[in-house]
Amino acid sequence: MDDGSRLLTGPGAGPVLSAAVRHAGGELLSWTLEHVDANPNQSTTATYLAKVSWPYGERTELLGVSARSGELSETDRGAEVFGDGNREVAVWIYPADPDLPGLKRAAYPELLAALVNDARLLPYPVTGDELELKIIGYRPRRRAVVRFTTGGNTFYIKAIRAKLFDDVLFRHRMLTAAGVPAPHVAHTTSDQLMILDALQGKPLARAIFDPGDPCTPEQLIEVLDSMPPSVAQLERRPPWSDAVQHYAEIVSSALPEARGDLEWAVQRIRAGLAGIPLGIEPTHGDFHEGQVHVAAGRVVGILDVDTIGPGRRADDLACLIAHLSTIQRMNPAQEAKVRDLLARWVPVFDRRVDPVELRLRAAAVVISLATGPYRSQEPNWQESTRQMVRSALALVRQVAG
């Protein structure tokens, strides 16, 4: 089915973007594809960096477009809808994301200052000029994180889809009430913004390249094991391995040469994990070096607890191994440091969970990560994807022959 991927990733996107910019009162001067979220045979969402001439001058804008194989969704129609008689697409100019209604208030300093003052986050009022904003992450139609700093105080704002907001808030409060070092929720809004206090320390993703060990593998296991039993009573999220076929299809669509290897890996992963119970341990659900904060050689916090729920500890440890195994653009010294950490950490993880299960689940996560280079339109995404596929195959071959 026509999911819109050919339109949104090819030259046909130009007239769509031009029409949207013209409708908003500007003139499109140039554009480049910036990000692609593909759901083969169902939908495609893409973002573009566009140079636009407005009545007040030129400016680079981020435009988003969503297309579906069927009818547009209700939230699609919260954006501007354009059609040519054959299909309709939803178009927005950042930060007017139709699924993240609060994002506009987090993206503009003046609006954010008003929010900060209304929420009394600080003991004194601030103006937009006093706020330093940085977009930490934006996944179109899904989520966004903005960091803002003023007077030595740092906060993070998460823009969350309406249908998920209450559940995410509940999970944050569940963990902090149990003493788990998750971020404290400082304020929430009716348009689904969640303001969080900054964690202490620095991300493990940066600390792994500092001299010495950033933490011990035992501490990583301990922070996971510190989650309260009530986490296991939450709604279950499928482990990454359940969707390995889905992610393999996305990678194969972008890089057809990898299809045979991916089909082999998927078959071995599914066969090796067949019959293993779902698990009832409290799990993080997306545990990797970007989610862990460390200081003075110890784990001091965990981020993005939206995904906590019942599962198997091997799911979390496999996710960490997969992410560490696929870090991109390292220099030789950094590569050696990560290899050394993995060589010392994985045997500790092997004592906590089944080694075969650990590697198969890690391979499945690597395959999910292999969708990233194309999705983010990295300059050499093909080779980055090949490297990730090779990493997944290596993990499977360690235990499947």
From TrEMBL:
InterPro entries: Aminoglycoside_PTrfase, Kinase-like_dom_sf. The keyword Transferase applies. The keyword Repeat does not apply. Keywords: Transferase. One of its GO terms (molecular function) is transferase activity. SUPFAM superfamilies: Protein kinase-like (PK-like). Residues 146-337 form the Aminoglycoside phosphotransferase domain. This is Phosphotransferase.
